[in-house]
Specification:
Helix 2 runs parallel beside helix 10 (590-609). By secondary structure, the protein is an alpha+beta fold. The chain has 3 domains: 21-258, 6 Propeller (Neuraminidase), CATH 2.120.10.30; 259-345, no CATH class; 350-609, Alpha/Beta hydrolase fold, catalytic domain (Rossmann fold), CATH 3.40.50. The strands form 8 sheets. Strands 29-30-32-31-33-34-35-36 form an 8-stranded mixed β-sheet, sandwiched between helices. The chain has 10 helices and 36 strands.
Length: 610
């Protein structure tokens, strides 16, 4: 009698063996894309032929991570930003498009710079970017003359400004003055005179995000939530200073772009987490939805749609729950689609992969909490992990989360519930605002509602629940184990703050004012902030806890994790603590990212399965 050896399950390393993409920029001739990806183990610049074929590496960083990229109009140079070991102090660099040494355009290691949406002027003589080099608490708009290297501080009004796109005639530069996550004041810089003009009401702010210019300079498209729960698309007419609606769906528009000839206007609608890409032929006024693309999402950091200079094609970057992010080429006239990249580096049996079910959980006050529920193959009962996203004003979307971490857990018989608790974006600004000045308030009741929902499922082992999250999700993890200790058998916290008072006081300078609006003011509300902080309830933590921290994290500094780990060790609580000395708020090095997910997965297996 013979026996067959059962094939071994893929490891976390197998699920995580994928290439992750950042931004991209077309060459002026449309034949190549300059793309940011971590194929080398770190985020570097690569050239990708649009026709298909192998990529060519342009930068060779191991500690620096490339963050933004923009090809020059003459095709000879590529502009990009990069930081060091996750410190988010982005610097500007300019390199030959054919490869070679990069020239550092900025060099202050304590300053953070950001490129504009379309940083190059049409003639290629100027670039626009933002930086807090003059005042660490403000972000100015700087225009550099590339041939001479001379800088003009075009906007220095003490606000947190970001450079938008420049009109085709070079006369105007759009500026976004960010007051909060839901309040952006659009401004118009008259380049020749230096005049800066408000295009919104500073006393009645909306989330006005200026986007792309009309080729004739008559105005620009803008994404806004004016008089609406959701972000919609409008055209701002410069002659009349009015905003006319173009698209007002029942969900929020997330990004928009325009072909150079003005024929094709494309935008994406965030429909319950999925990106639905729309194409408008402005010559025929015919609008279509691209259905040839996989059902997934665009990058959470914005963008993800790139229109070719020849006005014929678009490249879209999409990720799904079972597939890593890929680049797809779309013919705008026909909608024909082809996959350009192959991001999975090791084969995975697709029958093992699980698509989530979209569910709704009732909150204590009657609100509905949207969530993604991943059920392992089989009957159960299964352990389950509650995974809480960061932000807090982010959104859990149907993606290949954490390099396939959910899929790894599922392959080991661990279910995942990933909710969009109050404060999440994507479900209207009223829902999003519920988290303002209330972290550790009513969101705790949402965490409990999610835990009870899991316990009510007949196929879940209610005695084996874990909780997982990073950043605000890490705060949620610490909140759960300290204030709802009866639910959890294990917990993993990645770069999560433990004390809201010390957190806000340690934020980067440009975050201070926004943080007070979102989190609270530590100078006047210290008692309330401490009431909502996990550190206050640290003596109630009994669940085994795994804490992961980046030593260079500028948002949640290492002391936030050190403090809670020290207090738990004093009490003899089972706590595992890993510090990544070459990382910041999250991971840029592939080996670190995979190790953290591998160790997190094993921690849950040991405490929920083993």
């Amino acid at each position: 009698m013979s026996s067959k050896t059962q094939p071994s399950l893929p490891t976390m390393d197998d699920f995580a063996a994928v290439i992750t993409y950042g931004g991209a920029s077309f060459s002026p001739d449309g034949t190549q894309l300059a793309v940011i990806n971590n194929r080398s183990g770190q985020y570097n610049l690569w050239l990708q032929p649009v026709a298909g074929g192998e990529q060519t590496q342009l930068t060779f960083y191991t500690d620096n991570a490339v963050r933004e990229v923009a090809w020059s109009p003459d095709g000879k140079q590529i502009l990009y930003t990069a930081d060091v070991q996750g410190n988010e102090k982005h610097q500007l660099f300019l390199m030959p498009a054919a490869g070679g040494d990069a020239e550092a355009l900025t060099g202050n290691p304590e300053v953070q710079y950001f490129l504009g949406d379309s940083p190059w002027s049409p003639d290629g003589q100027y670039i626009a970017y933002a930086g807090n080099d003059r005042d660490p608490y403000a972000q100015d708009i700087i225009v550099r003359e590339v041939p001479t290297g001379e800088d003009d501080r075009a906007v220095a009004d003490g606000r947190i400004n970001f450079a938008g796109s420049r009109s085709h005639d070079g006369k105007f530069l759009l500026v976004a003055d960010g007051r909060s996550n839901l309040e952006v004041l659009p401004k118009l810089l008259h380049v020749q005179t230096g005049e800066i003009e408000d295009l919104g009401d500073p006393d009645d702010l909306a989330n006005d995000r200026p986007a792309v210019w009309a080729p004739d300079g008559s105005g620009f498209w803008m994404v806004t939530d004016r008089d609406s729960e959701h972000d919609w698309l409008g055209f701002y007419d410069l002659a009349t200073r009015t905003l006319a609606p173009v698209a007002q769906p029942d969900w929020s528009i997330e990004t928009v772009d325009l072909s150079k000839d003005g024929k094709w206007l494309v935008w994406s609608v965030n429909e319950n987490g999925f990106s639905r890409i729309q194409v408008l032929n402005r010559e025929t006024n015919e609008q279509t939805e691209l259905t040839g693309l996989p059902g997934g999402t665009l990058p959470s950091f914005g963008g993800g749609l790139y229109l070719s200079p020849d006005n014929a094609t678009m490249v879209a970057q999409l990720v799904t729950p079972t597939k890593p992010n890929e680049l797809y080429v779309v013919e705008l006239e026909t909608g024909a689609t082809r996959r350009l990249t192959a991001s999975r580096l090791r084969p995975i049996d697709e029958s093992l992969l699980v698509e989530p079910e979209q569910v709704e959980i009732e909150a204590f006050d009657g609100l509905t909490i949207p969530a993604l529920l991943f059920k392992p193959h089989g009957d159960g009962p299964f352990p389950a992990v509650l995974s809480i996203h960061g932000g807090p004003e982010a959104q859990e979307r149907p993606t290949y989360a954490y390099r396939g971490f959910y899929q790894f857990l599922l392959s080991r018989g661990i279910a995942v519930l990933a909710p969009n608790i109050r404060g999440s974006s994507g479900y209207g600004k009223s829902y999003q605002k519920l988290i303002h000045r209330d972290l550790g308030g009513n969101d705790v009741k949402d965490f409990e509602a999610c835990a009870n929902d899991l316990r009510s499922l007949p196929w879940v082992d209610s005695n084996k629940l874990g909780v997982f999250g990073g950043s605000y999700g890490g705060f949620a993890v610490l909140t759960c184990v300290s204030r709802l200790p009866q639910y959890w058998a294990a917990a993993v916290d990645i770069v999560g703050p433990s004390n809201l008072v010390t957190l806000i006081r340690s934020f980067p300078p440009t975050w201070r004012d926004v943080a007070k609006t979102t989190f609270g003011d530590p100078d006047t509300e210290e008692e309330d902030l401490l009431r909502r902080s996990p550190i206050t309830y640290v003596d109630q933590i009994v669940a085994p806890l795994y804490v992961i921290q980046g030593a260079n994290d500028p948002r949640v500094v290492q002391a936030e994790s050190d403090t809670i780990v020290e207090k738990l060790r004093e009490r003899g609580v089972d706590v595992k603590y890993d510090i990544y000395h070459d990382e910041g708020h999250g991971f840029t090095k592939v080996e670190n990212d995979i190790k953290a997910m591998r160790d997190s997965g094993q921690f849950f297996i040991d405490h929920l399965v083993g």
